[in-house]
Amino acid sequence: MYFPNELKFVAYATKLVSYVVLNLDNMKQINDTLGYQVGDEVLRARASLPS
């Protein structure tokens, strides 16, 4: 996970930075069965939905 590296960047950022962490059930199964490209599409689709 790149989160600790990103925190180093944020210390010097001049703009606000936000992180969203999602725990989506079955993502591993989706990636393993349908591939990472489909998994990426699922993440983009979910990110565009209201919480």
Q: What secondary-structure arrangement, pairings included, does this model have?
A:
Layout: H1 3-10, H2 27-34, H3 36-47
Helix pairs in contact: 2-3
Total helix count?
3
- The secondary-structure element order is HHH
Task: Assign a percent range to the helix content.
Answer: 40-55%
Share of β-strand residues: under 5%
Shape descriptor: elongated
Query: How far do the termini sit from each other?
Result: 23 Å
| Number of E-type strands | 0
Uncertain residue segments: none
Structural class: mainly alpha
Taking all Cα atoms into account, the compactness measure Rg is 14 Å
Average pLDDT value? 82
Largest sheet, in brief, is: none
Can you characterise this structure?
By secondary structure, this protein is mainly α. It has a domain at 22-51. Helices cover 55% and strands 0% of the residues. It is built from 3 helices and no strands. It has helices spanning 3-10, 27-34, 36-47. It is elongated. The two termini are 23 Å apart.
Task: Give a brief rundown of this model.
The protein is mostly helical and 51 residues long.
Keywords:
51 residues; mainly alpha; 3 helices
